[in-house]
Amino acid sequence: MGNKIGVVIVDDHPLFRDGVKGLVERTENYRCVGEAGSGGEALLQARKLVPELMTMDVSLPDMSGIEAVRQILREFPSIRILMLSMHPNLDFAAEALRAGARGYVMKEATSTRLVAAMDAIRSGEYFLDGQVSQDVAARLSCRQAGDGDAQDERYALLSPREQQVMRMVAEGIPSRQIAATLGLSTKTVENHCTNLMKKLDVHSKMELVRYAARLGVIDLEQWK
Q1: Cβ neighbours for 29, distance < 8 A, ≥ 6 positions apart
Q2: pLDDT digits (tens, 9 = 90+) for 91-103
Q3: Residues 6+ apart with CB under 8 A from 46
Q4: What CA–CA distance (Å, rounded) separates 49 from 47?
Q5: What is the Cα–Cα distance from 183 to 222, expressed in whole angstroms?
Q6: Do the beta carbons of residue 155 and residue 208 sit within 8 Å?
Q7: What is the pLDDT of residue 134?
Q8: For 102, which of 111, 121, 155, 221 could close a Cys bridge (C-beta 3.0–4.6 Å)?
Q9: Is the pLDDT of residue 56 over 50?
Q10: Which among 118, 34, 119, 61 is positioned nearest to 84, based on CA atoms?
Q11: C-beta atoms surrounding 17 within 10 Å
Q12: Whole-angstrom Cα distance, residue 60 to residue 140?
């Protein structure tokens, strides 16, 4: 038991977490050491446990799983993260790898395939689900050098509050609702929105939505 690799399971659906936990506990090499239902909880678990491996849902209630990967690996680059998704979204898979994830697997994958993915990233390899692997590899190889880095640099200019407001605006949440959720005035939210759009060099809400989707901050399929 003591030699097993500790895994933290991150998903906002308790039933799915239980399923993954049951699978992990039945393996010879892994054990579940923690669970989280949001990106914020995932970061807290990473800080508390510093697990060797995490499974991460792409869509979380407070931020995208891809953004959670960025935040976690910024503090704990040694953690290996496997993304789990309901959709073979090529942009998400490519962005997940750019964020530092080591694998991308569909939630409908068989238990054998999920364990194979965990084994691969544990040994330092990358693992991509067969539905997306070749397309993602082609997409990454065809990107112009520096494009994604420039996007990340602009995003890094935003304060944590501006990043939070950006995600909510990009999700189409009205300013009044954002203000009520964050405990701010509507005017303050609008000022944050104006400032962050200047920093990102975007000039409309739709352009902000596209930028956020490319960066993996929101799930464009759910937004549609």
Answers
A1: 4, 5, 119, 122
A2: 778 778 888 999 9
A3: 8, 54, 72, 75, 76, 79
A4: 6
A5: 26
A6: no
A7: 55
A8: 121
A9: yes
A10: 118
A11: 19
A12: 24
Q: Which CATH number fits domain 5-141: 3.10.620.30, 3.40.50.12780, 3.40.50.2300, 3.90.600.10?
A: 3.40.50.2300
Ranges 61-65, 66-70, 72-76, 117-121: which has the least confidence: 61-65
Outline which parts of the chain fall under CATH 3.40.50.2300.
5-141
Which pLDDT does position 3 carry in this prediction?
A: 86
Instruction: Say how far apart CA 64 and CA 33 lie, in whole Å.
Output: 22
167-211 tens-digit pLDDT = 889 888 899 999 988 888 999 999 999 999 999 999 998 899 888
Angle made by CA atoms 161, 203, 209, in degrees to the nearest 5? 60
Strands (DSSP E) along the chain, which ranges? 5-10, 30-36, 53-57, 80-85, 103-106, 127-128
The 10 Å Cβ neighbour count of residue 61 is 11
Beta-bridged to residue 103, according to DSSP, are: 82, 127
Tokens of 5: 């690799």
Nearest to 40 by CA among 73, 9, 12, 63: 63
Q: How many residues are recorded in the chain?
A: 224
Residue type, 58: V
